[in-house]
């Protein structure tokens, strides 16, 4: 199973992703779809791209909550939900921990770990905007800024993969136990992740 993971669009069109999307069985979108936008902005960015494709998405801290209204209407939201695609179970949670920037999609950290549905298959993917705390993918100039409750959830549940974003400068991979953590890097800068799921899981960080 081939998975395309993108995050942090910040209103960028999906033309680049469109050029490769048909090579993938599943597309994961990890939030900040808009740049402080709402329902109509998300619909304009996503509606054509998601047609007839297996897509799962969460919203980010730079998306207003009604972006999730569109994601749910389009039946691609996994915010507090669980969805099966092929051999994989995808679950997730939107937003990011509260910060001094007071962006619209911020939540109490505890909500993130508590809101993720339990995974139910060996091929389990947790899709979040926030990265887990104290990893290679949550390092900002001020230090580690990821979600502590997400880290605890991953340590306890050990899903196969966590796709996250939010911290643009922390593009990379890490592990918490056996869980592969992937921050594809911001899509608006041309970054994405290519993931192969078979007997093993492999990940390549790529650019358009």
Percent in helix: 10-25%
- Backbone structural class: alpha/beta
Average per-residue pLDDT, rounded, comes to 97
How many strand segments? 15
End-to-end C-alpha gap: 21 Å
N to C succession of SSEs? EHEHEHEEEEHEEEHEEEEE
| CATH T-level topology | Purple Acid Phosphatase, chain A, domain 2
Tell me the strand order in the biggest sheet. 4-5-8-11-13-12
SS summary, helix count: 5
User: In percent terms, what proportion of residues is strand?
Assistant: 25-35%
Poorly predicted runs: none
CATH superfamily: Metallo-dependent phosphatases
| Computed Rg | 15 Å
The outline comes out as: globular
Q: What does the main sheet amount to?
A: 6 strands, mixed
Number of domains: 1
The CATH level-2 architecture is identified as 4-Layer Sandwich
Give the class-level CATH name: Alpha Beta
Quick overview:
The protein has one domain (2-207): 4-Layer Sandwich (Purple Acid Phosphatase, chain A, domain 2), CATH 3.60.21.10. 18% of the residues lie in helices and 31% in strands. It has helices at residues 15-18, 39-46, 66-73, 109-115, 148-157; strands at residues 2-6, 26-30, 55-58, 82-85, 88-93, 96-97, 106-107, 123-128, 139-140, 143-144, 161-163, 172-176, 179-183, 191-197, 201-207.
Keywords:
208 residues, alpha/beta, Purple Acid Phosphatase, chain A, domain 2, 6-stranded mixed sheet, 5-stranded mixed sheet, 5 helices
